[in-house]
Amino acid sequence: MADDKLAELLKTQKSLTEWLEDIKHSDATLIRKEDNDKRERLKVLHEVIGLPFDKPTQFEATELSEDNQKFMAFLKERGAELCALRLMPKKEGLPKLRMRGKTTTDAYAWFKEQKIDPADYRADFIPHAPDSLWATIFIVNQHGIQGEIIDGGHHQLTQGFHDAAAPSVFRYDFKAWSITPHNDRALEHLKKISKFIYVPDRSRQNKLSEMLHATFEHDYLAGYFETTESSLGTWYIDYSQYLGDIYKDVTLRTESPKSDGIVTGQTGSSGKARGEVCIVDPDNLDIDFPENGVLVCAVTTPDYVPLMQKASAIVTDQGGILSHAAIVARELHKPCIVGTGDATTKLKDGDLVSVDADVGVVVEG
Q1: Phi, psi (5° rounding) for residue 316?
Q2: Would the pLDDT of 2 be above 70?
Q3: Euclidean distance between CA atoms 218 and 12, whole angstroms
Q4: In what side-by-side order are the strands of the sheet with 352-356?
Q5: DSSP character for 268?
Q6: Rounded distance, CA 226 to CA 258, Å?
Q7: Strand locations in 293-365 (E)
């Protein structure tokens, strides 16, 4: 995919909550609330088990609008630092507003441009690292600790766009680690971050169960997690019980896909389907999509949601097994193969193919 086209696609990216609202997911409101409250949950984990997280500095939005003395002192001290600013709604139904990667001073200027009632929002200034060393997305369930790790920015995992090399898929079955492609440095990092959610102390488990309704597998905190590593340190940036629950029975494959298909990749959403290939370029999304067609594209973005809903299956060049698009495909019950590398060049419009997303293979007929 050309760099300019990739850059344009990145502009359309949304949060997972917004993806799920686009497909009218029945639990979208619940998921939005959980997403809005995630740093409050991370704060509890930090206090009880020492989990490192991207701790925000919080203000009432009214303190920003009134040039409050406490806020102005913060602005003077931290104005040149990079941050992410999240305006968190205090009333149900209001949107979360956000920006990232600007200085605190510039974020304050952005805040003053927003057409909101400050009384309805809280302002969270979250540290924003100037670099990205490692990023992970993973789940902890009865089958182990499983997910993806990449050397670089976290957005590559959530959005499925890879700047260079694709991520490694990993799994720890509570006995041994496996990772594909093998990477000793990545494995060392995974062992490091997994220690933070290992809670052998029963009193702490009970406390987290009472405060967060937390559950555990082999003394590891269960759920869905996102982490980053940078020059500022190691941070957990998400802990979702809802997403952990929808993946509670899943076992991710760490072995390489079978090579006897036209194209092979990783399972984004399991299942099998058969249909005619329809290759859809991002410049031609209003295409007359065939009934039961197999959607083939470089990577799915929010603009592809109407086609994802029509498709019998989805096959992409890029993408990740726990990316937003893969989670949406799973919730749509659509077989989805991601990370093939060459589906858009090896498959042709009108080809009749069978998609076996359980093993990550597309074959003729």
Answers
A1: -130, 155
A2: no
A3: 40
A4: 263-264, 361-364, 352-356, 272-279, 294-297, 313-316, 336-338, 266-269
A5: E
A6: 29
A7: 294-297, 313-316, 336-338, 352-356, 361-364
The contacts of residue 46 (CB under 8 Å, 6+ apart) are 52, 53, 55
Q: What angle do CA 132, 138, 142 make, to 5 degrees?
A: 160
Cis, bond preceding 181 (omega within 30 deg of 0): yes
User: What are 36-68's pLDDT values in tens digits?
Assistant: 899 999 999 999 999 999 999 999 999 999 889
For residue range 143-184, list pLDDT tens digits in order.
Answer: 999 999 999 988 889 888 887 778 999 999 999 999 999 899
User: Could you tell me if 300 and 160 are in contact, meaning their C-beta atoms sit under 8 angstroms apart?
Assistant: yes
Q: What is the third-level CATH fold of 263-364?
A: Glucose Oxidase; domain 1 (3.50.30)
pLDDT digits (tens, 9 = 90+) for 87-103: 999 988 888 899 988 99
The pairing of strands 144-150 and 134-141 is antiparallel
3-state secondary structure 69-112: HHHHHHHHHHCCCEEEEEEEECCCCCCCEEEEEEEHHHHHHHHH
DSSP state letters, 162-182: -SSSPPEEEEE-SS-EEEES-
Task: Name the one residue in this structure whose structure tokens are 């990783």.
Answer: 266
| CA dist 319 → 78, 249, 307 (Å) | 36, 22, 16
CA atoms within 13 A on the CB side of 142: 5
Quick one: pLDDT band at residue 8, thresholds 50, 70, 90?
low
pLDDT band at 258 (very low <50, low <70, confident <90, very high): low
Pairing of strands 144-150, 233-240: unpaired
Whether the predicted pLDDT of 255 surpasses 80:
no
Per-domain residue ranges of the chain = 54-128, 134-246, 263-364
Contacts of 106 (CB under 8 A, 6+ apart): none
C-alpha dihedral (122, 55, 203, 208), degrees to nearest 10: 40
139 vs 145: CA distance, rounded Å:
6
Q: Which of 209-223, 258-272, 280-294, 326-340 has the highest mean pLDDT?
A: 209-223
Instruction: Give the separation between CA 238 and CA 42, rounded to whole angstroms.
Output: 7
